[in-house]
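Possible regression after last week's pipeline update?

I re-ran a chain I had predicted before the update to compare outputs. Posting the input and the new output here so someone can diff against the archived version. Not blocking, just want to make sure nothing changed silently.
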Amino acid sequence: MTASEIRALFAVVSRPEVVSLAGGMPAVTALPLDSVGSMIGALVSRLGAQALQYGSGQGDERLREQILQVMALEGITDASADEVVVTVGSQQGLDLLARVFLDPGDVILAESPSYVGALGTFQAAQAHVVHVDMDESGLVPEALAAALAGLAAQGRQAKFLYTVPNFHNPAGVTLSEPRREQILALAEAYDLLVIEDNPYGLLGFEHEPLRALRARNAERVIYLGSFSKTFAPGLRVGWVCAPHAVRDKLVLASEAQVLCPPALSQLVVAEYLDSQPWFEQVKVFRELYHERRDATLEALTALMPADVTWTRPEGGFYVWVTLPEGLDAKAMQPRAVHARVAYVPGIGFYADGQGARHLRLSYCFPDPDRIREGVRRLAGVVEEELELRATFLGSSDERAVRRDASAPQGSAPGEVSSRTRGGQPHGQADTPGPDLP
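New output (post-update):
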């Protein structure tokens, strides 16, 4: 068990002089806190005997019915409350799925890069993660097909594909509509289970929510959801929607782990969904994060050196930044902290040591002025790193000549030359198949 790159930063980002572009903390101050506080007080007065008692291992029935209404916004209209298991955040859902499905040495497929919390869970289960390439349109179907074929050639099969299709953490990209169908077709062809992790799906800036993978295939897709991004992460309420046979095992695993999810937290969420204009509040969050996304992209464009690229998220919390060749985001991190700005190095989002040139910026928590100042500080650190490298390795022109002379023909998968398109996450789709131990 190892500390994640994000958790290791907590002591630093809590210092008021540091601009944190690291943790993905929702802007809970945008909630009507007086109304929420009054609602919770009235709830405890009215239902305290239930709210402060043990509950069902599967979760409160009223909340499970309400979760169906939330999922319907993304096209999931055929699920039943009996298929829903309430969890202590969707992170517990991930852990339960790992307990149910994974044995040591099993192979799972995950995007390149992938959510650090999922990678930690898979590592604890002693699974082997094979990364699959992404680009600006999300997971690349051809790369997934190559990974599946490579496993089949070795006589092995992945237990599941783990994917964050909407406003990806950390890459910020969204799986396109045509690719959703292609990926599910591959899942059918290779008898592959899909774990769809979707905490950000309602937080899009530029279009209505895309139809979920679970809405397209109820038997092959297990769906993870959360109220952490659309209400309050401190309540720790998430859910898993799974076929009945899987649901049964998840409930057993959850009961062994926590007996039951906290009744008070569930009833607070259920009361919030019943009594508050929660969908209007989601719109408030969208507008807030949209403004902060724009401030981030504008500051990056105005301030970053020319060779730095980044993604352009259409929703969610994150921008994925690619540094110029030769820079290492992890090695640069102490100098950034000294400059009073924090980010998450990209290496934490890979299971195989990739990611040195990448870093994740989170724009959800700081206000726009704070974001601009953080990007200004970060741009200064990057410029200093480039100057330091040039001092030891010669001018940029000399480096370019040496690089052109030694580089193979062609460009790496996912590589872009246009600064306006932003840097794209990429892995190793050019390899014939996964190299398994």
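Follow-up from reviewer: compared with the archived run. Residues 393 and 399 are 7 Å apart (CA to CA). Marking as no regression found.
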